[in-house]
# Entry
Amino acid sequence: MASLAESLAKNFSFSSFKKAEDLKKRIWFTLMVLVVYRFGTYIPLPGINPGVISDFAKSHANSLFGILDMFSGGAMGRMTVFSLNIMPYISASIIIQLLTAMSPQLTALKKDGESGRRKINQYTRYSAVLLALIQGYGISVGLERIISHSGPAVIDPGMVFRFTTMTSLTGGTLFIMWLGEQISARGIGNGSSIIIYSGIVANLPAALFNTFAMGKQGAISVMALVVLLSLVVTVIAFIVFMEKAVRKIPIQYPKRQTMANMPASQQNTHLPLKLNNAGVIPPIFASSILLLPATISGFVSVNPDSIFGKIANSFSHGKPLYMIFFLISIVFFAYFYTAIMFDPKDTADNLKKSGSYIPGIRPGDSTADYIDTILLKLTSIGALYLCAICILPEVILSQVALPFYFGGTSLLIVVNTSIDTMNQFQSHLLAQQYEGLFKRGKAKGLI
# Structure
């Protein structure tokens, strides 16, 4: 069966894709949903001054505001109904996952099968609504405090504007959540990742145009542009290599009698452990936490000579203190999130229940300790990899003032989502070829 799968995988062609009607419908559905999403990123919030918002976005491009604007596909910079994007849902998912690891009730609910997972998903949605309301209120208050040389950002501030902003942003988040679920169910790829991916990719042409315009104006030398583009290509290739890297732990199943008068066969397989189990969560969390002081000082009038002003300036993008704590935060979240998502004890118990074992390792606690040791080494390498990917572009971008779209976090998201989507694409195409093979076998009477 494995050799058959490899043979089918090697014979992928455009003609086989043309016959995959279900796959084509999924791709078209995903594209249409993304068109609807991109249209929503241009619907502005009621009662704001777009010119003032645009000036504020340009002056705070290197703060948390710039990162959120990147994740929202430019919606935050235009202050539209999709400004919060799907980030409240992602934050709620992470919070629920952390609570699940610490709460025995949620842990039991997670192990309760499909009904338990539905309840946890329901809790996640309720938490996302609560976070969206809180963030929406914070944004409305922050918008009322923005005043530029052309006037205030809010035309008529007050409780009516705050309520309207809260409901508009929360409704936009709920609609994006629904779009993401539709992509996951009826499209191709993970809906949440595809939406963030589309927002980053949609603004890449503008980022490239601005970069080349800076080169044409002399703000960046031609040699620096060549080096930067070469670095981006190298980083992408390195990310692909590291994201596909796995440690295969050999697993042996007990011998089974296949047919009468035939010797029992022993099945061998492996347990794949990814080098980077935490994905893009550590850089996203680290960036958001470290840029929070600078962002608060941007929304609130803070004296630069005050203690909070000095702290915010020290943690601003590109500063040495920011870089140091950025690395420490990435390492911390890499270990923490991996420990939450993967439990060696559960894996060892499942292997023991099925009668499987790792050659040379006793089942039970010894297997759990062995897997935990390997996972610790892999997480250490993965954390160093994330630090290298994120900090090197950050150092360079801080010197030449390029947008976040060329940073390590954005490249990680784009590459990871592309790999996951291509894997699903190949899985659908492989399933279609299997289906055609079985139909031909039945027609010939072989099955």
DSSP finds 19 helices and four strands in the chain. The longest strand covers residues 246-252. Residues 20-205 form a domain with the Preprotein translocase SecY subunit fold (CATH 1.10.3370.10). Residues 365-400 form the longest helix (36 residues).
